[in-house]
Design brief:
172 residues; alpha/beta; four-stranded parallel sheet; 8 helices; 4 strands; globular
Length: 172
């Protein structure tokens, strides 16, 4: 199991394939990304200098993520990443109006983040063709869910908790 929350959720996506290199090829592999940054505003990348962007591009390209630094909607570029993870069971957990990902980092409002997530370029739509990718959404301002007993037990719109979702993803 590879798990990460917040920035660690993006790291789990990027480095899961690296971890795979140390595993028996026949072993069951699960990745849980709790609140990864995938839905940001157009100016999101402006805060990073060119050397940091080169670093991002280098590690993202390892898993097939060809990020566009003029657009913060990373989610629409995740198809090739999901292709690289076809033999993993993956769970992505998101708050639809996450203050940390929208206002603090994303340069957008919580409503704009919600609209991005639920758009045709949002991660639920991009993940839908992949039977091994599951997405759990909660219409909340919260950021990360599995780090505390309280937030792991919150009920999503589909009646499931983040904890139960992660357990189901692992059990597949």
């Amino acid at each position: 199991v590879v798990y990460g929350a917040s920035a660690g959720a993006m790291a789990s996506i990027v480095y899961g394939k690296y971890v795979e290199g140390f595993l028996n090829p026949n072993i069951k592999k699960t990745l849980i990304a709790d609140s990864p940054g995938l839905h940001f505003g157009r100016t999101f990348w402006d805060k990073f200098d060119s050397s940091m962007k080169i670093d991002f591009k280098t590690v993202f390209n390892r898993v097939g993520l060809d990020v566009d630094f003029s657009d913060g909607a990373i989610s629409k570029k995740m198809g090739p990443v999901f292709e690289n993870y076809r033999d993993w069971s993956i769970g992505i957990i998101l708050g639809l109006r996450d203050y940390v990902m929208s206002k603090s980092y994303g340069n957008i409002s919580p409503k704009e983040e919600r609209d991005l997530i639920l758009s045709p370029d949002g991660i639920p739509a991009i993940a839908s063709p992949y039977s091994n990718i599951n997405v759990w959404l909660k219409d909340t301002h919260m950021h990360t869910f599995l780090l505390t007993k309280y937030s792991a037990g919150l009920i999503s719109e589909n009646g499931d908790t983040a904890y139960n979702f992660a357990t189901t993803v692992y059990s597949k």
